[in-house]
Target: DNA mismatch repair protein MSH7-like
Amino acid sequence: MNLLILLHNDEHLMSLLSKVLDIPQLSEHNALSEFLSQFEAAIDSDFPKYQDHDATEADAETLSILIELFVEKASQWSQVIFALCCIDVLRSFSAIAIDSSGSMCRPSILPQSTSNTVCQNSKGPILNIKGLWHPFALRENGVPVPNDMILGEGTNGHHPRTLLLTGPNMGGKSTLLRAACLAVILAQLGCYVPSEMCVLSVADTIFTRLGATDRIMTGESKFHNSLFH
Model:
C-alpha cells in the first residue's frame, strides 16, 4: 500500500506504469487507504486482543463482522494485489538488466511478414543473436562462453532456417537451446535479452523437446530439438 501511494506521487513513474497496467487509486475520498485506516482503528477499539489465541465467543463474533467488512472490498484488494505483482515483475526485469553479470541488450523485433508462403527465395523469419548466454548457467568466474546464432536471412544472401548442433554430452547443447528459447520469450515480453545483439521476427509458438534419460556408458543419447514458428 505504501509503495503504491509513493508511486502515485511520482508523475513520471505513473506515466510509464500506466502504459502497461492499471494502478488503483488509493488516496482519494473513500479509497482503500481511508478504508484501511478506519479498519485498523476498528480492530484496535473493538478487537484489541486479536493476537490472543484464546478468543472468546464474543471476540469471534466481532472478528467475523470485521472480516465481512474487509471482504466487501475484495475487488479493490484484487486490483492492488495484481498491480503489486506486475510492479514486482517489472522491477525484477529492470534489476536483472542493470546488475547482470553478462551483456544485456535491447532486442529489435521485426514487423510480422504479410506473406505466409515459405520458399527458397523468400526472406522468411529471422533469429539473429550475437553473444547469447544463459542467465542461469553462471560459472564461478563469470558467465559461460557466449554463442552466436543466425537463422533466416543472412548478409551473404543465404537463408538458413535450420541449425544442426552436435557435440559431446554435457557440452552445452541443451543450454544453448534453452537460452535461445528464453531470449525469444524475453524479447517479446519487452525485456532486455542476455546477449550483445538480438534481432528476431515475431514468434507465436516454440516447440521443444529435452530428454534426460541418456545412456552415456552405452553410447546412447537423446535427440533434442526446438522449433520457432
Summary: The chain has two domains: 2-99, 108-228. The helical segments are 2-8, 11-17, 32-46, 57-71, 74-99, 173-189.
